[in-house]
Specification:
Layout lengths: L2 E13 L2 E8 L13 E7 L2 E6 L10 E6 L7 H8 L5 E5 L14 E6 L3 H13 L4 E7 L8 H6 L6 E5 L8 H6 L6 E6 L1 H13 L7 E5 L14 E5 L5 E4 L5 H7 L18 E5 L2 E2 L7 H6 L2 E2 L5 E2 L3 E4 L2
Parallel strand pairs: 7-8, 7-10, 8-9, 10-11, 12-18
Antiparallel strand pairs: 1-2, 1-6, 2-5, 3-4, 3-6, 12-13, 14-16, 14-18, 15-17
Length: 318
């Protein structure tokens, strides 16, 4: 995938453990355009690549703005961003990609953000406002000190449509109540921790919302726990015919990398879809949060960073 060379023009503290980074082209050129909900891959050094949503207005072509939460259990990405990446430094990033785009139409939209999940929804809010389309943004955080980009939201021209829910003040989000205020045909967009997203989607489905109006993007998967009795299986590479054994406790990506077969990865948790690989034969055991239930049921692709196999063999289109 092609990369862009950018410079950190500005770094700012947005909340406890959250920093924003304004990225501009090193040569001052216009950056490739993006749509609301898009993300970029950021190469943070040491072979670490992480995905961060763009949270500035999509019409801005002179910069990319990302927000990074320092995770207490960081696998190297967020800690490197917070500890090593300073103003003036140069980075390689990918061109923007979007797996979480807004649906077309003039319908009402309701946006649900949990914690750092606010970042793609900020870009959505900016776009919807610029297009004169109706929306409401619900933003849930534990405390005011953890509410990233709050000043920006308070000063935004769409501030009247923002609802801030603070656990410490007892204003926790009531999803059912929020959805009851939405007109027919509203589309729902939710981003944040897996538990938050699942809670919002369950509430919507319980009220009869169809999956065609539910859109989500996970920012982190639950910790992977090795299941008792996890079985070994084989993976065959279609282009070469070579077969490799995947033992319990090892991922397909790890084993293939040891044999010189590079599968692009980013989150390594089945969240981002970067490593999504076509399955030609066999039945995957899906452990990702990226695909919908319908896509998983098709069994024609899987995420080798975390998923395994129900069958003894998977033949991959590599």
């Amino acid at each position: 995938m092609s990369t862009l060379r950018v410079k950190v023009a500005r770094r700012a503290c947005e909340a406890d453990d959250v920093c924003s980074y304004e990225l501009v082209a090193v040569d001052g050129a216009t950056l490739p355009p993006f749509t609301a909900g898009a993300h970029i891959d950021v190469h943070v050094g040491g072979g670490i690549v992480r995905q961060y949503s763009l949270c500035n207005a999509p019409h801005e072509t002179h910069r990319y703005l990302i927000g990074v939460l320092r995770e207490p259990t960081s696998r190297g990405g967020s800690s490197a961003m917070h500890e090593r990446i300073a103003e003036g430094m140069e980075l390689d990033v990918s061109v923007p990609r979007n797996h979480f785009g807004l649906a077309g139409g003039t319908h009402h939209s309701v946006l649900f953000a949990g914690g750092i999940g606010i970042t793609p929804l900020l870009a959505m809010a900016e776009h919807l406002h610029a297009q004169g389309l109706p929306f409401t943004l619900h933003y849930s955080v534990r405390s005011a000190a953890r509410a990233a980009f709050r000043a920006r939201l308070d000063e935004a021209p769409f501030a009247s449509g923002v609802r801030l829910h603070l656990d410490e003040e007892g204003t926790r989000l009531d999803v059912a109540a929020a959805l009851s205020e939405c007109p027919p045909g509203t589309h729902l967009y939710v981003c944040g921790p897996a538990g938050y997203i699942d809670h919002v989607l369950r509430a919507a489905r319980a009220l009869g919302w169809g999956d065609d109006r539910l859109h989500r993007e996970y920012f982190g998967a639950a910790p992977v726990v090795e299941e008792a009795g996890e079985r070994a299986f084989d993976v065959r590479i279609a282009s070469s015919g070579n077969t490799y054994a995947i033992p319990p406790g090892r991922t397909v990506v790890q084993v293939l990398a040891e044999h010189g077969i590079d599968v692009p990865v980013s989150c390594e948790q089945g969240v981002c879809g970067t490593c999504l690989t076509r399955v030609l034969e066999g039945i995957p055991e899906h452990r990702d949060l990226y695909q919908t239930e319908e896509e998983q049921a098709a069994n024609d692709q899987f995420t080798p960073c975390c998923s395994r196999a129900k069958s003894a063999l998977l033949v991959l289109d590599l």
